[in-house]
């Protein structure tokens, strides 16, 4: 999809509304993103470089990420069957996630953020990391309702 249709869809989403199934909470968390799963052994293969970024929001099954580039080397971060691996820095611990990008857009002069926004669905997470992420999101939602 070229940039113009992507921007039109993004703007329509703002006017029509958000149809996400789970509530996302706005939070800025640092993460390290890679194209290869850091939990597996590399068996002598060359590990691809990683990229640093931060979140705009998270939910128990998805994340919106801001990254400075849409590629790592010659590899695009989005595309058919692309899997990304995140080490997400929660305040008390880091959790590791496997995610699949579902949309992306270039951030333009209308926002204070620069780079690319990638919306991704969580597809791989350990049970203990899922528990930590669920509790983190639950606490943020409780704080939002209290304010």
Description:
This protein is 23% helix and 38% strand. The protein has helices spanning 3-16, 127-146; strands spanning 25-26, 30-34, 51-58, 62-67, 71-72, 75-76, 84-89, 94-107, 115-125. The protein starts with a helix and ends with a helix. It has one domain: predicted glycosyltransferase like domains (Thrombin, subunit H), CATH 2.40.10. The chain is built from two helices and nine strands. The chain has a six-stranded antiparallel beta barrel with strand order 2-3-4-9-8-7. Strands 5-6 form a two-stranded antiparallel ribbon. The protein is α+β, with helices and mostly antiparallel strands and 147 residues long.
Attribute tags:
Thrombin, subunit H, 9 strands, single chain, 147 residues, 2 helices, alpha+beta, 6-stranded antiparallel β-barrel
DSSP strand tally:
9
Q: What's the overall geometry?
A: globular
The helix-strand sequence is HEEEEEEEEEH
CATH topology: Thrombin, subunit H
Low-confidence segments, given as residue ranges, are: none
Task: Give me a quick take on this structure.
By secondary structure, the protein is an alpha+beta fold. The protein has two helices and nine strands.
What is the element layout, followed by pairings?
Layout: H1 3-16, E1 25-26, E2 30-34, E3 51-58, E4 62-67, E5 71-72, E6 75-76, E7 84-89, E8 94-107, E9 115-125, H2 127-146
Antiparallel strand pairs: 1-3, 2-3, 2-7, 3-4, 4-9, 5-6, 7-8, 8-9
């Amino acid at each position: 999809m070229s940039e113009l249709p992507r921007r039109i869809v993004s703007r329509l989403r703002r006017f029509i509304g958000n149809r996400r199934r789970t509530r996302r909470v706005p939070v800025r968390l640092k993460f390290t993103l890679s194209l290869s799963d850091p939990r597996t052994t590399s068996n002598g293969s060359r590990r691809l470089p990683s990229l640093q970024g931060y979140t705009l929001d998270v939910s128990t099954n998805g994340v919106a990420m801001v990254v400075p580039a849409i590629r790592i080397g010659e590899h695009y971060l989005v595309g058919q069957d692309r899997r990304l691996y995140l080490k997400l820095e929660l305040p008390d611990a880091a959790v590791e996630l496997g995610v699949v990008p579902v949309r992306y857009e270039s951030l333009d002069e209308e926002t204070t953020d620069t780079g690319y926004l990638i919306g991704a669905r969580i597809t791989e997470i350990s049970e203990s990391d899922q528990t930590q992420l669920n509790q983190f999101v639950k606490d943020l939602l409780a704080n939002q309702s209290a304010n």
